[in-house]
Amino acid sequence: MGDQLGRWLLPGMGPLLALALAGGIACGDADDGAIGTIEFRTPTPGAEATTPAGSPNGEATGPVLEIETTEDDPLAFSEDELRAPAATEITVEYTNNSPIPHNIHFFEGSNARAPSIAMTDIATGPNAIERVTFTTPDTPGSYFFHCDVHPVQMQGDLVVE
Ligand SMILES: [Cu+2]
């Protein structure tokens, strides 16, 4: 329960939402009775004062590259080329919408014999979203990626500029 709440309460969400969630939980607990719920409907000045300014915090701030596998084409990446600036922290967000397990794995060279740079976890879709954040190589060029489960069918290049 604690973990689950923690995931929902992302930075930027106001304390009011937190109160709403807490209120919902309290309402669901029959032992507590309903008397306390009025308190949650009344915004307090203190709660508003602590509202974050709205700047994302603690999340990836660099470019986000999106790539996916669709249900209709379940053994392929939607892109065979991704582009990113050199020596830059990027996040790759891979969405697997197929019922087949996949991941995306980047290498520091032109094929999978090169050292690994970064990879997502292998996940089975639909709607399986995996992210990985890493710093792109200093040297511009093409860097190979593939799916570890289907290294022949699913591959492409990260073009570093
Ligand atoms: Cu795969």
Task: Name a few traits of the molecule.
alpha+beta; 30% strand; 3-stranded mixed beta sheet; 2 domains; binds copper (II) ion; 161 residues; 4 helices; Immunoglobulin-like; single chain
What report would you give on this structure?
The chain has 161 residues and is α+β, with helices and mostly antiparallel strands. The protein has 2 domains: 2-49, no CATH class; 64-160, Sandwich (Immunoglobulin-like). The chain is 19% helix and 30% strand. The chain contains 4 helices and 10 strands. It has helices at 2-8, 15-28, 38-41, 45-49, and strands at 64-69, 81-84, 89-96, 101-102, 105-107, 116-119, 123-124, 128-135, 141-146, 155-160. β5 (105-107) and β6 (116-119) form a beta hairpin. The longest helix has 14 residues, at 15-28. The protein starts with a helix and ends with a strand. Residues 102, 147, 149-150, 154 line the site of copper (II) ion.
Architecture blueprint of SSEs:
Layout: H1 2-8, H2 15-28, H3 38-41, H4 45-49, E1 64-69, E2 81-84, E3 89-96, E4 101-102, E5 105-107, E6 116-119, E7 123-124, E8 128-135, E9 141-146, E10 155-160
Parallel strand pairs: 1-3, 2-10
Antiparallel strand pairs: 3-8, 4-7, 5-6, 5-9, 9-10
This protein binds copper (II) ion.
